[in-house]
Specification:
The protein is an alpha/beta fold and 242 residues long. It is built from 8 helices and 6 strands; from the N terminus they run αααβαβαβααβββα.
């Protein structure tokens, strides 16, 4: 999968990130493996960014609005945090409504990208190119000038995500925190129930993994949760988390 990228690493961001050594990240991952508290992880990231001399506006949360558990976790620690929702132009209406509800429900600054015009159905002939235009490019733009971002990737999502660390340098060199990566489906369900988390209605309609409507179907019984994404092709990721 070829992803076109821009250089989001400005000189000041590079200078700030140079202060965070890989040995520190290794130690932090070890600590988080023992003390698996997502709120503690978010606080570590905030403290690290502030210690590097940057403001908390250099951190952004990325959410696909399948559920808002990650938003709930982060906003409790960092109220007012900016949350990015990428409008691809092909989202289910239920997903768009979940984003609107999240913006009203949580103490966040919701940033919704402008969807590219819907023209020819590129997803039929070039799904990688479609994802690049509608997901990866908007993310690259949103990460300009950032020091870190937070995602809701979980190891149980798929085999390709099974080794996801709690924190690492992404392909741009930015810090990427995955505070709920260790959560199983049962862990997620327990958090949702205990905290009255906003859920995308499609979850209760047989869609355990929700993307753009042209490339998402209900998985059959016994299939992987992400089997309904880009069904019939070898594609397994949109490119945001490669």
């Amino acid at each position: 999968m070829t992803i076109e990228m821009t250089d989001v690493m400005t000189d000041d961001v590079r200078t700030l990130l140079d202060r965070v050594e890989q040995t520190e990240l290794d130690a932090v991952n070890g600590e988080f493996a023992t003390h698996r508290d997502p709120a503690r992880m978010v606080q570590w990231l905030a403290d690290t960014v502030l210690a590097a001399g940057a403001g908390l506006d250099r951190i952004i949360v990325a959410s696909a609005m399948a559920n808002t558990a990650l938003i709930d976790v982060v906003s409790r620690v960092l109220p007012g945090i900016e949350v990015l929702f990428i409008d691809t132009g092909y989202h289910f209406e239920e997903t768009l409504e979940t984003a609107r509800i999240a913006g009203r429900r949580y103490p966040i600054s919701l940033r919704v990208t402008a969807a590219p015009p819907v023209g020819e159905p590129r997803y039929l002939t070039d799904p990688d190119g479609c994802c690049n235009l509608r997901k990866v490019v908007p993310l690259e733009e949103a990460l300009q000038g950032r020091v870190a971002w937070i995602s809701g990737v979980r190891r149980s999502d798929s085999a390709s995500r099974a080794q996801t660390p709690f924190v690492h340098r992404d392909r741009r060199g930015l810090l990427k925190l995955n505070p709920i990566t260790h959560w199983s489906d049962a862990d997620l369900a327990a958090y949702v129930s205990a905290n009255d988390v906003v859920l995308n209605p499609l979850l209760s309609q047989g869609y355990p993994s929700i993307g753009c409507w042209p490339c998402t179907r209900r998985p059959a019984a016994g299939e992987d949760a992400r089997a309904g994404r880009w069904s019939g092709s070898e594609k397994t990721e949109c490119g945001l988390h490669l």
